[in-house]
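Provenance

Sequences were taken from public entries as deposited. Structures were produced by running a predictor on each sequence independently, with no templates supplied. The record for Glycine/D-amino acid oxidase-like deaminating enzyme from Amycolatopsis viridis is shown for reference.
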Amino acid sequence: MTATKHVVVVGGGVLGVSTAMHLQRDGATVVLVTAGALADGASGRSLSWLNSAGSRSAAYHALRVAGIDRYRTLFAADPAREWLRFDGALYWHPDRAVTGQRHRAEVAHAYHSRLLAPAAAAAAVPGLHPDAVPEVAVHNPGEGWVSLPHLIDHLAAEFTALGGRIVTGAGRASVTTAAGVATGVTTTGGQRYDAEAVVVACGAATPAVVAELGVSIPDASPLSMLVLTEPAETAMSAVLNTPRVALRPNPGGTFALDHHWYEDRITEAADGTCTIDESVVKELVAEASALLDGEVTLTAASWKLGRKPVPGDGEPVFGELPTVPGCFVAFTHSGATLGLIAGELLAGEIRTGEPHPMLAPFRPDRFRP
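Predicted structure for Glycine/D-amino acid oxidase-like deaminating enzyme:
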C-alpha cells in the first residue's frame, strides 16, 4: 500500500459509493460528492439483474462472474436481506433459434444454463403463467437481483462509519487540474474539494465531465424508464426477460419493470427532464401481469425516466485517464452486476498504483486516436 491518499469521488450511484467505501475501508480519506441525493440517477432506476447471460467477450464475462461472486459473499453474510436475492432468471425470444443460440453461447463458457420447454419452465419458476413461454426458454438458476438504492444505503452506512464524508445536493462537479494532473473538483456552487485522486462515476454524465478535460469517451446512453408496482400476491421470485417486458421482484412484495420498445416514446427536454405518456406505463404493466400465474393484476406505483449509462462500444470503461493523471473513471451499462467488484478493483488501483489485470481490456485509453 502507498501512503494514505485523499480522494474525491464524483457520483452517488453504486459505482461511486462502492469505490468510495472500498477506498475508505483501505485507509484512504474520501469525500463523495453527488449532484443530488444518493441513488437519484441511473442506480435508482436500474433493473439491477445480476448476470453474465448471453454472449460477450471472455474478459467481460470473467469480470461479471467476479461481480456476481462478490454479491454471493454479501448474500451469505445475511441471507434474510430482502433486497438481494438469488432465485434465478428466465429468458425467451419470439424466435426459437435466437433463444437456442443464447443457450449455446452460455454453455460454451460454462455458465449455468438450461433450455426448457414451456411446461418445464413453468415448473422451474413458480408463479409463471403456464402459457407465458411460447416454445422454449433459457433458465439460469444461479442469477439474481439487487435493489441498488438499498445496497447504496448499506455501503454508505459503512463508508460514513469509517469516517468517509458524503456531500449531497452539490450540483454538477468539474475536475480541477494543475500542470495536467487532477487536483480535485469544483462544484457549480463554487465549493472546491482538493485531492490527490479523483474518481468520475456519475453515470451517463461521465463523458461530458471528462470532455472538459479534453478526453473523449464515446457515449451511447439511451433514454430509459423503470416502473415500480404496488405490492402483489404472487409466488414469482425470479427475474424474467421476455420480448415485451423485463421483470424482477423488489422489496415489499413489489416488482420493478423495464424494457426498450418504448425508448422512442420518451421525450427529453433541454434541461434533461423526461416525460412519457401514462398509457405506455399501463401497457408495460399489463405485459408484466400477463406473465404471472393466477388472477394477478399489477398496478404501477411510480416510474422514473432518464439516461441509462452505456459506453459507445458497449464495453465498460474503468481506470485512469492517460492524459490526466490522477483522474479515474467508472462508466458502464452493467453497473449493478459490476458495482461491488469494480469499486474494489478501482480502489485498489488508486491506493497502490498497481493496475489490475482484469480491468486491462476496459481502459479509457482505448478511445485515443
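The chain has eight helices and 22 strands.
The chain has a mean pLDDT of 97.
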